[in-house]
Specification:
The protein is elongated, with a radius of gyration of 27 Å. The protein has helices at residues 15-55, 60-90, 96-109, 116-138, 141-170, 182-210, 216-226, 235-252, 259-279, 283-304, 314-330, 338-357, 365-377. The chain has 13 helices and no strands. Helix 7 runs antiparallel to helix 8. The protein has a domain at 1-139. 73% of the residues lie in helices and 0% in strands.
């Protein structure tokens, strides 16, 4: 589908333009009615083709008909945006929703020249979302249920395509966090956030109504994520929320957001969390940031590194095996003495993180001092008397 170039101009005060605008306002309701009927017909045809395609054992016979009806459906929605919403905004008769819709439409179109792959996915997503709002508000429950089935499956596909596109952009980087691609990490987290709020919530709702426990295994994780949506979030909350998003993505987007890309996202969060700990001056807030960092380190090791098959070097693999063996030994304290378990786990995580950040380009010297103070407090490290800095503590075993 090719777009007609649209440009909103200021109102022309000439007599001819006033008459033209008045006539346009008169005919806009008729246009909406015609477009609405066309969209409804195209939608019904597409839903029928989708159902036949989904239920068919030999899908090749129904695939082309479904694809053709899907394209015709999108074209009718695109025409509605250009012919109706645009004219209503131009003539100052648009609702706030329509104004917002046209603004979003321009945002999607702006991607076409430089980000064509993302544009293709984003435009389909925008048009279907626009119609979904209309279906929810005007259609009968039977139609809504049928559309929901299509909507969930198609949106799943579109979000996976968007995330896969971001993954490809990160593919030429190493597994270390690359700050030059900060905008890609931001887009990944924003896309995951959008998916959880718009699509996963709908999936969980449909699942509960149908009594099919298809997504029950991730419901608990999602409920934990939802808790962060209440109130204003500080930097610690944002990092922690993104950590939960990554954890959910390992279950929902295994192929679209592969392990190597997820690892880079974890590295970005770890860098943000480490910086927050060492830059926070208020002791209470620093302690909260530190606890969040420990949780993130645990998440990174358990949800990602423990599932990693291919390593960059044998040395890294053997180092993690050694770490994992120690972690498994510590777990024996969990049911016997939980406080001791937490203490030993922290000591292990701190030592491992000191080893990892010691040779980083970024200056983590303040964080290392803070870590060493923790080790001294836990009795895992001795402090040489008479020295004021933690850097003069003896070597960690």
């Amino acid at each position: 589908m090719e777009e007609t170039s649209l440009r909103i101009t200021g109102a022309n005060k000439s007599f001819i333009n006033k008459i033209s605008n008045t006539i346009s306002k008169i005919f806009i309701p008729t246009k909406i009615g015609i477009n609405g009927m066309i969209i409804s017909a195209k939608r019904n045809s597409m839903i029928k083709a989708f159902e036949h395609f989904t239920l068919a054992t030999e899908k090749d016979n129904y695939e082309k008909k479904y694809e053709d009806s899907y394209i015709a459906y999108l074209e009718s929605l695109d025409k509605y945006v250009m012919d109706t919403i645009y004219k209503k905004v131009k003539n100052n008769t648009a609702t706030d929703f329509e104004k917002e819709a046209l603004s979003r439409y321009y945002g999607v179109i702006s991607l076409k020249e430089n980000e064509y792959v993302e544009y293709k996915f984003r435009k389909q997503k925008f048009l279907i979302e626009l119609d979904y709002e209309n279906v929810k508000n005007t259609a009968k429950e039977k139609v809504i249920n049928k559309f929901n089935t299509f909507y969930i499956e198609k949106m799943d596909w579109l979000y996976k395509g968007i995330l896969k596109n971001y993954s490809i952009k990160l593919a030429d980087s190493t597994t270390n966090f690359d700050s030059t691609k900060e905008w890609i990490y931001i887009k990944i987290f924003n896309t995951l956030k959008e998916y959880m709020e718009k699509i996963l919530t709908l999936k969980l709702n449909v699942d509960s109504k149908s009594e099919q426990p298809k997504y029950q295994d991730i419901k608990k994780d999602y409920e934990e994520y939802e808790a962060f949506e209440v109130g204003k979030l500080d930097q610690k909350d944002i990092i922690e929320k993104n950590m939960l998003l990554l954890g959910l993505s390992r279950k929902l987007f295994t192929h679209s957001l592969p392990l190597t890309v997820a690892e880079q996202c974890y590295m970005k969060l770890l860098k943000d969390a480490r910086c927050l700990v060492q830059d926070t001056k208020l002791s209470v807030r620093r302690e909260k940031a530190y606890n969040m960092l420990i949780n993130l380190i645990e998440d990174y090791n358990i949800k990602l590194l423990s599932t990693k098959v291919y390593w960059e070097s044998n040395e890294q693999r053997e180092k993690f095996k050694e770490f994992w063996s120690k972690f498994q030994n510590i777990k024996k304290y969990k049911d016997i003495d939980f406080i001791e378990y937490v203490k030993q786990k922290e000591i292990l995580f701190i030592k491992d993180d000191i080893f990892k950040i010691r040779n980083e380009k970024y200056d983590y010297s303040k964080l290392i001092k803070y870590y060493k103070r923790k080790l001294v407090d836990y009795g895992a490290m001795k402090e040489i008397q008479g020295y004021k800095t933690y850097a003069n503590c003896v070597k960690i075993n």
